[in-house]
Each structure stands twice: as C-alpha cells, then as structure tokens.
Amino acid sequence: MRHPTHILVVNGVKVRQPVFVLGAPHSGADLLARALKRSPGFHLTMGRAPVARVVYAFARKPSIARSGGAPRVLRDVLAEAWQVTPGACGECAAPCREAGGLIGNGGAGPCALEQVGSGTLERFGDASPDLLYSAPVLLQAFPDARFVQLIRDGRDVVADMLTDPAAMAWFKPHMLTEDTEFPNPFLGVNAAAHRDRWKEMATAGKSALRWRAAIRLSAVLRKQLPPEQLLTLRYEDLHRSPADAIDTVSAFLDAKISAIALYGASAPKVGAWRRRLTPADLKIVEKVAREELKRLGYQQ
C-alpha cells in the first residue's frame, strides 16, 4: 500500500526524493555520505542529536516505530536537521562536520550555505548511524525516498566494531532489560529466552549478531522496494573502484555525485579481519553469521 505523499518545504526548497544511506555498523555508509555531502545540490546530515534520539528509540523499541505518529515524528526531526542556518553545523557530530569539510577549516559553517545562497540546493538526505532500523518509517514519511544500502564482509565489520567504543557501549548487560522487546533486530536477539546467553557471549559474537540482523533487514528491503527506490552497494566495490561505484550511485539518484571525496579518505581495508580477529573471535563470528556470509559470497 502506497502511503500518502506529504509536502515538506525546507529552506524554501520542496523536499523531493530524499536520500537515505543505510547499513550495518562500519559498512561504509559514512564514506558514501561523505561523497554525497560534498556533491553540488546536496545537503546531507549525519547523526544530528534529535534525529539520533528518534532513530535509537525506534531501533530499541520497534513497537514505537509501528505507531501511527512515527512517520510524522521522523519527518519533523529531519526537517529541523536539514534547516541551513549560520549556527546549524555547531550542533552536528564530528563525523558530519568532517564530511562537510568543516574540521580543519576553522569549523566555519554551515556546510551548505553557498548552495542555499545561489539557489542550487535541490536534494536532502541523511546517513545517521543505525538509520537502517528506521527504513520502514522513512518510507512512510517520504514515499518517494531513495535508499542506498551498503553491504560489507561481516568479519571486517566485527573487526572494526571491536575497536569502536560507541559500538561496544551497546553490548553492556543492562542493554537487555526486562522490558526489552523481542525479536530485537538492533542487538540481533530473537527471543527473551536468549537473553542470558547473549549477556554471556563474547563481544565478537554480539557484534556478529548485530551484523547478521542488519543483513537480514537489508534482504527484506530488497524484497519490498522496487529497484528505482533501493540500490545495494558492496563496500568492497566502493573501496576497490570508487569512481565506478559512484557512477552507479549517480545513475541511481539521477544526480552528479563526486567521487573526489573518497580519494584520500581513511577507508578501512578489505580483508583486514585476517590479521585483526583472533582465532577465537573468528570462530564465533563464522558460527553466528555462517549462513549470511556464505549467501553473500564472503565465505566459500
């Protein structure tokens, strides 16, 4: 069923076909966001605090995302995040500011000011971490939205998660409370009966559960959305041939996306899990995510 289209005007520009970048943690969404953010006509945000609060509320409590008012809430916080004002970038997280070229430039902003002044701002988007869990709500809020999802080898994802304090913070035992809803795709736990086992699991296993659940959500999106609304891109292709990958994104979005921002960026290496994961960690990752790794061609 198609949801009604809502007219949203931000900075005097009607929001049409907003772009949302999705993926499991450390799947490369931030790199693609960097390219989009530095492309003419785009204003893309990443992790603005009000947006993050809503996204994580939906992720932790899926029943909230299913409520009738969820699309309006998400649409409202994104409309606010997309406002271009002199002090707007001061509220952005460091990754968003860096992606916009503000760090090292005196922190001046906003990053889209010149586009607004010249009347060339045309597209809006967001690449906040864990936006994947809000994809169904985003589609209701913006029926003409365009989604680009990044897929990456789960072993490399886990290797990066294990060194990321923000990712590790979600794995503390108190994160699975008595009022946690199941199944819980955000943590990758399917039933309340698995709560104690999850709490005792090694962090590599918990990370693999998050990747596995994200991959399954991505597969659902591929079945539900037509090809003109969803593009699935492998991180390995983005890393190996940035120009070709960005050409694919440009064709999908019917917009000129610049690959220049990807060159020289600190991009995680492909296959780094071979030296970064301990034998014990690799064993549990491949046990938890064996089916998805094999289906995606990462484990022969």
Can you walk through the features of this model?
The protein contains 16 helices and seven strands. The strands form two sheets. It has a five-stranded parallel sheet, with helices on both faces. The protein is globular and about 55 Å long. The chain is of the alpha/beta class and 300 residues long. The chain folds into two domains: 1-152 and 228-267, 3-Layer(aba) Sandwich (Rossmann fold), CATH 3.40.50; 154-225 and 269-300, no CATH class.
Q: What is the strand tally?
A: 7
Beta-strand level of the residues, as a percent range?
Answer: 5-15%
What is the gyration radius calculated from CA atoms?
A: 19 Å
* Inertia-based shape: globular
Total of DSSP H or I helical runs spanning 4+ residues: 16
The CATH architecture category of the largest domain equals 3-Layer(aba) Sandwich
Unreliable residue stretches:
none
When the domains are counted, the total is: 2
Write the layout of secondary structure elements.
Blueprint: E1 9-10, E2 13-14, E3 19-23, H1 29-37, E4 42-45, H2 49-60, H3 62-65, H4 70-81, H5 94-99, H6 113-118, E5 123-126, H7 135-141, E6 146-151, H8 154-161, H9 165-168, H10 195-200, H11 203-224, E7 230-234, H12 235-240, H13 242-253, H14 273-276, H15 279-288, H16 290-295
Helix pairs in contact: 2-4, 4-7, 8-11, 11-15
